[in-house]
């Protein structure tokens, strides 16, 4: 078992998401960085879609009651085991009564545990979301149980590599959506050449940009939307829908981020700048 001695800034259980229920208004949810979800699980010998503990900015302090094989994956995070700094993106072996503390996360980090993390499952997913699961995140004092993996664990999984340099990129690859065609030539030029600053208001529902972009477009009828859609609000703000976003929206749709760019954006520091690269469908 694992006891949360402190919960951190925002710590929740996430897997690869909640599919097939958008018709009922259920967001996809799931890990903000799906690539690191998979990587963290591979490090400990799990299937790539297993639930993990997702942590933002300041992580939790955890006490282990049993020996476990774990891994913490993130572009940048400081992790301490019994007060001593330990490496990330590798296997870690913890013993009974060990204390793990996760600090100074750049954005999102993932803690995987060999085996099955037992938690409430709703609509075929363990991803926590405020109007679907009983709790939207983990709290101090929570006790997490781990079911032993049905698969024989091989230590070779610790040799899985992941190129963290991809997070140094500041370019988001996008495809154009219907309302983009209604923009003027000058407005299109601005979108393809200007840098945009990630707002501190960004969260699991949406990432916002600080700059104002003139909006001459009319509102549209509410239509289905998904993570990665870039909307233009009446105030002229560009908003990128993220994993917990609503499933319908009436703001003009400008872009759709590629899946890799959704993962990249989720890990960009607040106040950092990005630009858009428009791709053409083949």
Automatic annotation (TrEMBL):
Keywords: ATP-binding, Hydrolase, Nucleotide-binding
Coiled-coil spans in chain: none
Location of the Carboxyltransferase domain: 23-282
Gene3D superfamilies (alphabetical): Cyclophilin-like
Record SMART domains: AHS2
GO molecular function: ATP binding; hydrolase activity
Protein name from the UniProt record: Allophanate hydrolase subunit 2 family protein
